[in-house]
């Protein structure tokens, strides 16, 4: 495994109380593999990614337990200075909104070149040449001229390409993409996603794709991890999950996708709201919204059941769920 | 307007804009190595916050007038002999309090010194004190405030309380107490006092704007790509946080000039033989009924100078504040 997150716990200590954002997450990615992390806002998918990258704001955030093994080393045991060298060079992150993720007062060439001056100690001139190469690689036209321009002079899709170029600059082993296409138009989404998938194949990187867009997931992911209230409730290969979900939450998510053959009917929605992270319900966190909930769900936290050797589900009734 | 409904082509062109098809074609067009509609051509010069601000300023009459006044002040404080041939310290008691006469347009003061020459030479003191005090205050304030805002935690709390303590010191009273023990005849004690009492103002502004800039996504993105703290602070945060500091510092420059005059008037600021508007206003005020002109000219020069710096600060704020754009 390239990256393995083991039993990670993260909480935020605020004035109003302790918000348990991540409660024992386990997932892993191999080189060349794409893991999609699905979940609603507040399910802990971004916080887990930030903990992996080491950019969690601490305080108020605090990692209270677990390990993050990257190429065999536990990142949580490294000193900050050693960790900084891993960031950008060994693992990199692509953010949701490329306009706000690029510094408005620096030209894109300066920002791309920074990767090489910081990590590789290159001269500014060499870094500029590298920046143009990168812009060519992510297919930004007229890279030689546009390298001097500022982020606001690019369209949304082009900006996201620049973010991708920055993340890929040093050919890291792992890329975490936090909703990379959410802020883009539908047509541009596909182009950016295709580009990302293509470069990932070329460089054999591990990719963690954080998203709530089930359409994107089906096309590019190898495996899916579904998160709810800071836990992974189901993890499985893509086609298995779409064929037959083994957790009622996954099932609810899949049923709430609009489908052409349901034209004119009411769209399914999961009842209720995600739990307050300062007050997660006892037992299974999903029980107040679950159509299959029984008494045991309100008292016992479901362990991760092995559905088969590639698949886990955190539901007491995963068999019933799997059989419809 | 009345023709539009009758012209089908116009109507189609009107409704066709901005649909998803346009976005698709525009993105495709950029892929086809032709500059997109977002202005990608090489002839399009890059624009930044600073070049935008400069363009705004050049068109603003308030900026032009105040900048010309300040330019004039700076020139005469470096080369006062350009417009005043006399010596400000060479006085003739027999002409004391005399009014305007040929060669001496502003008349004479109580000591028989030429008011015109002294007013011109006074600019040097005021501009020196104003500029140096502002530089000192801005440097100290933005370094301390910026670090507190960036690292937060204990340092921030300690610095914020120290700031509060300095804010509680009344400027004039503090000046009377601190400067009355100084015997030096130079401008340095006055500048030092202004820096000592002025930095908390800038420090607060710098702290606030660093905290705002720190929360920007691009700072986190740069961190995720391996930038160190010093690089984050100097390259990503400082350029995006410096605008409010510049604005406040420009306006403060005017108030430091008037503070110098206030302190000199009270007798704790600069002391003769230094030539300063504050000293001249102070001495002229004792015989204002006999020779009002000796009070009028240095006060007028002081008022115009302070006004020019405050107007400049206003213009700079308008140009740098993106919310007014």
TrEMBL record, chain A:
Topology term for the membrane: Peripheral membrane protein
Pfam families: ABC_tran (PF00005), oligo_HPY (PF08352)
Subcellular location: Cell membrane
SMART domains hit by this protein: AAA
Transmembrane segments: none
Highest taxon of source: Bacteria
CDD domains, per the entry: ABC_NikE_OppD_transporters (cd03257)
Keywords: ATP-binding, Cell membrane, Membrane, Nucleotide-binding, Transport
One Gene Ontology MF term: ATP binding
Ranges for domain ABC transporter: 5-254
Family the entry assigns: Belongs to the ABC transporter superfamily.
Protein's recorded name: Oligopeptide transport system ATP-binding protein
UniProtKB/TrEMBL annotation, chain B:
Domain ABC transmembrane type-1 per the UniProt entry, residue ranges: 123-313
Keywords: Cell membrane, Membrane, Transmembrane, Transmembrane helix, Transport
Disordered, as annotated region: 1-47
Subcellular location: Cell membrane
Protein name per its UniProtKB record: Oligopeptide transport system permease protein
Domain of life of the organism encoding this protein: Bacteria
Cell membrane among keywords: yes
Organism: Streptomyces pseudovenezuelae
Membrane topology (UniProt): Multi-pass membrane protein
């Amino acid at each position: 495994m390239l990256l393995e997150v083991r039993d990670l716990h993260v909480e935020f200590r605020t004035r109003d109380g302790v918000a348990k954002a991540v409660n024992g997450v386990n997932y892993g990615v191999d080189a060349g593999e794409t893991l999609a992390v699905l979940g609603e806002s507040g399910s802990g998918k971004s916080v887990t990614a930030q903990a992996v990258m080491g950019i969690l704001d601490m305080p108020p955030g605090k990692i209270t337990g677990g390990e993050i093994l990257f190429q065999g080393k536990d990142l949580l045991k490294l000193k900050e200075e050693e960790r900084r060298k891993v960031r950008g060079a060994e693992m990199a992150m692509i953010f949701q909104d490329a306009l706000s993720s690029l510094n408005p007062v620096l030209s894109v060439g300066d920002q791309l070149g920074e990767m090489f001056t910081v990590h590789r100690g290159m001269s500014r001139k060499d870094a500029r040449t590298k920046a143009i190469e990168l812009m060519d690689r992510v297919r930004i036209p007229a890279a030689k001229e546009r390298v001097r321009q500022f982020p606001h002079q690019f369209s949304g899709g082009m900006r996201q390409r620049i973010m991708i170029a920055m993340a890929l600059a040093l050919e890291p082993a792992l890329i975490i993409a936090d909703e990379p296409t959410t802020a883009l138009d539908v047509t541009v989404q596909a182009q950016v996603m295709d580009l990302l998938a293509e470069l990932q194949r070329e460089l054999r990187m591990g990719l963690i794709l954080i998203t709530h867009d089930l359409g994107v997931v089906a096309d590019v992911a190898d495996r899916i991890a579904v998160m709810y209230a800071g836990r992974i409730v189901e993890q499985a290969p893509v086609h298995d999950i779409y064929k037959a979900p083994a957790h009622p939450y996954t099932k609810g998510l899949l049923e709430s996708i609009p489908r052409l053959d349901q034209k004119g009917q009411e769209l399914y929605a999961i009842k209720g709201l995600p739990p307050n992270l300062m007050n997660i319900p006892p037992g299974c966190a999903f029980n107040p919204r679950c159509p299959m909930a029984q008494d045991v769900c309100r008292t016992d936290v479901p362990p991760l059941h092995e559905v088969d050797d590639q698949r886990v589900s955190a539901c007491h009734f995963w068999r019933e769920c799997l059989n419809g | 307007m009345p023709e539009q409904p009758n012209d089908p082509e116009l109507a189609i062109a009107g409704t066709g804009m901005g649909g998803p098809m346009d976005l698709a074609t525009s993105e495709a067009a950029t892929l086809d190595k032709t500059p997109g509609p977002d202005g990608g051509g090489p002839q399009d010069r890059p624009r930044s916050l600073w070049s935008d601000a400069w363009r705004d300023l050049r068109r603003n009459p308030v900026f032009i007038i105040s900048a010309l006044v300040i330019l004039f002040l700076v020139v005469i404080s470096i080369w006062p002999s350009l417009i005043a041939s006399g010596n400000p310290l060479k006085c003739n008691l027999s002409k004391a309090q005399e009014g305007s006469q040929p060669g001496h347009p502003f008349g004479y003061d109580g000591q028989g010194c030429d008011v015109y020459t002294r007013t011109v030479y006074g600019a040097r003191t005021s501009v020196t004190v104003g500029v140096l005090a502002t530089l000192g205050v801005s440097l100290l304030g933005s370094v301390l405030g910026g670090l507190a805002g960036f690292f937060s935690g204990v340092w921030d709390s300690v610095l914020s309380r120290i700031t509060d303590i300095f804010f509680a010191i009344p400027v004039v009273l503090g000046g009377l107490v601190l400067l009355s023990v100084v015997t030096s005849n130079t401008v340095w004690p006055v500048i030092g006092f202004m820096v000592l009492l002025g930095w908390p103002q800038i420090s607060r502004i710098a702290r606030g704007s660093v905290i705002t800039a720190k929360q920007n996504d691009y700072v986190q993105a740069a961190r995720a790509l391996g930038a160190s703290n010093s690089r984050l602070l100097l390259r990503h945060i400082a350029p995006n946080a410096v605008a409010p500091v510049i604005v406040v510092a420009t306006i403060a420059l005017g108030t430091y000039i008037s503070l110098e005059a206030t302190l000199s008037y009270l007798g704790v600021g600069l002391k003769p033989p230094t030539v300063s508007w504050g000293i001249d206003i102070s001495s002229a005020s004792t015989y204002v009924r006999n020779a009002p002109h000796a009070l009028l000219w240095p006060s007028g020069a002081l008022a115009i100078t302070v006004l020019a710096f405050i107007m400049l600060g206003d213009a700079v704020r308008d140009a740098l504040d993106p919310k007014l754009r």
